[in-house]
Amino acid sequence: MIRVDANHTITDARFSDILRQSIRVGECLLFQGYRIPEGYGRIEFKCQQIYVHRAAYAEHHRRPIPPGLLICHTCDTPNCIEPAHLFAGTNIDNVADMWAKGRGSKPPVHTGEENPNATLSDKQVADLRAMMAAGGTKQRDAAALFGVSQSTVWRLTHQKVRAHHD
């Protein structure tokens, strides 16, 4: 019996089935059975869903995976079960590994009216800023006029929110 983690176990025979469903491609040992859309191999054993790379790691190290740890791939191939390509780590370790390999990308920054949360158009922002720069208008009055909060007027006039042209 192989204890994968605190909640999952499989038999040696079931693990042998995993190996029979795997092929060697270069340095990777790729599971060819069922894979979830993200590419990770998964089996069902005694009504439990078990990721095969986790089972391979636990079988190779002869101990269960500690709670809270992921099994990460040095080869970045989700269905690889080659023990030399698997390491235990936290989510922070996994993200650091992703960035170190240049696989991360920062989400696009949408400024001004391109931001889906924008309330004002770029022209309205320019008009509001011009009104506040001219003086004589209170922030709460400008907020009521443009349909935004007083704090939004403050952030716009103090450049704490970027308009598209900033």
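Second entry:
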Amino acid sequence: MTYRPNSAAFGPPWPSRVPSFVYLSLALLVVALVLIAERSDPSSGLYDYLIARDMTRLVSSRTLASLLLLSALAAVLRASMRGVRIRGDGIEFRDIVSLGWPRVRRYKWAQIDRIILDQPQMIAVDLWDGSRAFLPAVNDRAGLAAALEKVAAARAIPVRGGRGLDEIPESTEFDEQD
């Protein structure tokens, strides 16, 4: 019987999420301006610019604010879906490549020849076909490295640059007392 680790997920680092949260805050600001303009005095400049001139626009200010908000929420969700997941049957990682197109890669434990932990920023895995796959940056690199090292020790996968597993302390419970 082989070792099947518990599922663990490691999300993206905080700096990669910041742009989507900035976009969400700007979208919320636009929604707030539209709501304030709708409730303001009809003689005010904000009402005139955002509400009264909607008749001549292709897209109304309310529709534009709704679309911006939906787009910002989608950006926050997409940014949070990056990361690495350790599953019972292998590793799954998600990253965003050019123009926001997602990339999902799955590798079974049997496909992994070596786990490389000695690089300062990245964790890599050498695969059975001679290629090397770099895992995306995560918010808890040390936790991911420890989890991968534990799985590697249980499945006899060589690790380069690991910190070593904590030794189980010897129990003195069953030792004979003199």
